Amino acid sequence: MQSKLRVEPPQSQAAPADQTERVNGHKALISELQDQRKKIRQGGGAARVEAQHSKGKLTARERILRLLDEGTFQEIDAYITHRHSDFGMNQQRYPGDSVVVGFGKIGGRRVCVAAQDFTVLGGSFSEVQGQKVAKIIDLALESGVPVICLNDSVGARIQEGVYSLAAYSELFWRNTQASGVIPQISVMLGPCAGGSVYSPGLTDFVIMTQGESHMFITGPEVIKTVTAEEVDMETLGGAMTHASLSGVAHFVGANEDASFATARKLLSYLPSNNTESAPRVTPTDDPTRADAALDALVPCEGSQMYDMREAIDRIFDLGSFFEAHARFAPNAVVGFARLNGEVAAVIANQPAYAAGVLDINASDKIARFIRFSDAFNIPLITFVDCPGFMPGTVQEHGGIIRHGAKIVYAYSEATVPKLAVITRKAYGGAYIVLSSKCIRTDLVYAWPTAEIAVMGAEGAVNILYGKELKQMKDDAETERARLVGEFRQKFSGPYSSAASGHVDDVILPSETRVKLIAALDFLRDKQAASLPKKHGNMPV
Question: Which of 113, 249, 299, 371 could form a Cys-Cys staple with 243, CB 3.0–4.6 A?
């Protein structure tokens, strides 16, 4: 018996008039949305956008589009406005307020970004700006992606009083919580004064734009009032000042596009978060390449200089070395490079400048770079050619003990694979702190030119035989030369250290590339345990 199917009658169609009304209603809503978006894109208005352009500067959204991969930016919180009315603020409400935030991609990898909008009340840091930047950092933490802040602001929004200050506090707290979890990069594209400098100071890398960006706690006018000192903005807090004197800036871009290019290149060496490894690229350089020029690079005479960058360039994948802090403390060299396509952190003395001696600035530069690299799982490779710490009252009174201790603390704390290559001098305390075997460096190599000792042979002879040499009337210099040679033969070369196990192998300089690649491959799955504690007390 066949079942009977019930056929529903066709539903009545909407009348043409009703359908037209519905379509028109949708068009009106879409038109309203488009008008809202147009208003948002105008920032502080056409006049202020034109003023920004007249200074040769881009707007916040233009900057984001230049930084990110094309078509990837997704903005959030574009409609939020502030709630304050004092000082005429009820007449100055702009959708999105003074910052543009969102997410996108750089080199195909996800990132979060915040760009201060100078066209809206000078990009002043408001309660709303604090809320928006806090949200994007929270999203970056939850998603495990880097965050980039494009800074261009007059500072705190005075009209909002403590609400602005509280917003800064929320930002600084998040910068601190995100430290060592996701990379944080600050790109300075305009003024940054007062409390606003602390957020960049808390981030991992600061990129300043020459001629456009300035950073200082107190500006020239305040300084003149308080101390009677006269100084212009560029001298006080310009890009070259912070890149070469204070060390606040790690990189300098010649213009905005150059600063964006630097940020993109920097990210190509960094993992997205502390649970990942740095991105590997397909090698284009022969892993077995042996550069014979390295065998004659280091002069046998210890007083002669050479450029450590040449050794780095010849050992690592060709063209891969990306130096950080290049203008600050040039007696030390730090940066990222690749070995067979894999990222490594490079730390080196620079004998071409002040003989590669360690001073206060070099100690800070090295220690900070080590700690960043260890936090983000980047192996450490150290090239040692150092006669010791810089002597003198300026260094001692400036705290060279405290600053030098930062290096040994950073190396001792680091749990990533650690390799060291002693190219020439490794004397005294400098030998100890620069990734020596006894502070748990995994493998230490030495070149035949290595000199490992408590101090240089001349100084050691003066201490050990000074009285006897003074008492000698004849042949004192001949005897001194003999004793110096004897000391070098017994203590300064690499073989006595290799015999005691403090050097794992003495290698030809041209073998260094192959040795380092093999060592990093072997140490890839290194497991290191640390004693349980809340945190150590680094000598800051």
Answer: 249
